[in-house]
TrEMBL record:
The gene is aroA_2. Phosphoenolpyruvate binds at K23, G95, R123, Q170, R346, R388. InterPro entries: Enolpyruvate_Tfrase_dom, Enolpyruvate_Tfrase_sf, EPSP_synthase, EPSP_synthase_CS, RNA3'P_cycl/enolpyr_Trfase_a/b. One of its GO terms (biological process) is chorismate biosynthetic process. This is 3-phosphoshikimate 1-carboxyvinyltransferase. Its EC number is 2.5.1.19.
Amino acid sequence: MKTTPLAINAAKLQGHLQIPGDKSISHRSIMFGAIANGTTTITNFLTGDDCLRTIACFRKLGVVIEQEGERAVVFGKGFTGLNEPSEVLDVGNSGTTIRLMLGILAGRPFFSTLIGDESIGKRPMTRVTKPLLSLGANIDGRSGGEYTPIAVRGGGLTGIEYRLPVASAQVKSAILLAGLQADGETTVIETSKTRDHTERMIQHFGGKLEVDGLTIKVQGGQPLQGTNVEVPGDISSAAFFLVAGAIVPNSEIMLKNVGLNPTRTGIIDVMREMGADLQVKNEREQFEPVGDVIIKTSTLKGTTIEGDMIPRLIDEIPIIALLATQAEGVTIIKDAEELKVKETNRIDTVVRELQKLGAKIESTNDGMIIYGKQQLLGGTVSSHGDHRIGMMLAVASLVCKEQTNLENIEAISVSYPNFFNHLESLLK
Ligand code: S3P
């Protein structure tokens, strides 16, 4: 396995970055383009491996998709334009691809099989397949349907009312995508508010749905119409530079065109609560809110992160853990068991890898406790094939006293192929 030495002791980080497209919205723009009628033109599309897998899967279902860099055009023919694939659909590392596609395939009257990489093979799928079975789809997979490979023979769906057992936007989205193809109404009731990109996309593509607090209702059989989608920058990618700017001395970074959907801005709220010198400017609304975020080196204090805040920053917890090592006092993260079923078990990988760098951090059943402020030392660490762990460790190396070497750096291309170019452009 390749081990890559990382930069040590950045003097300061200065400049501005155009943050690459949001991963969740990029996936959905291809999917909605494929199930709508007519042409969908997508700009600022994220060219990370995960989103390219979504394109490859829809091409196997017969959808014509042109993609060159950050521009993609999808020629949708509605749900009925999807055809039985002659090959297995391989989602690679992408949980969003497999779970949302299951919702789409559940309504299609043909046979399809889905596989992914080693990490996908360990991620739970019955949370999605169980409600889809209740809608009327035939789905099975390894270990009683829990793991890939998963086979679907869809069609003949009838709307259901379903109370989500976990706070998961992927599960909610899969049920809504199946509900769009079902007879009658489908109701999803969330436990906590999760990212609402699917709900916004349904409306952006001309569909209707009702949202009342944690309850979402969608009618089956609605036609969707192709449209233009300008993907906002990914706040989950911006998060690495927000934290880098806050912890590296003498820094000031402007991150442009960052998605500011309130279901995703937990990182901003928590950083402010911890004392970060963070400003949001130039806020504007497309079908998703966006703005520019400025971060300066900050004096930070520990905090407690729990409850409804967790889904609003679930993907940012690895980088928040690093931030907490550089804050005075204790930071407690709880109610975050979902971290155990991400690309890796992120409670274990975050705690283990940060300990290797000299951090004082311990795992709990549903999160972690971090003791700051701690001078990180350096050492050899691994992404464990998890993009967000890899980027967190790269940012950690900036405040380590000695050299840090990162194993399995390639994983970062899943969500941020230009990450190191962007980082280098800020190093002064
Ligand atoms: C996502 C939802 C979240 C998140 C993932 C993307 C989405 O997963 O962690 O990176 O695009 O819907 P869960 O739904 O499993 O919480």
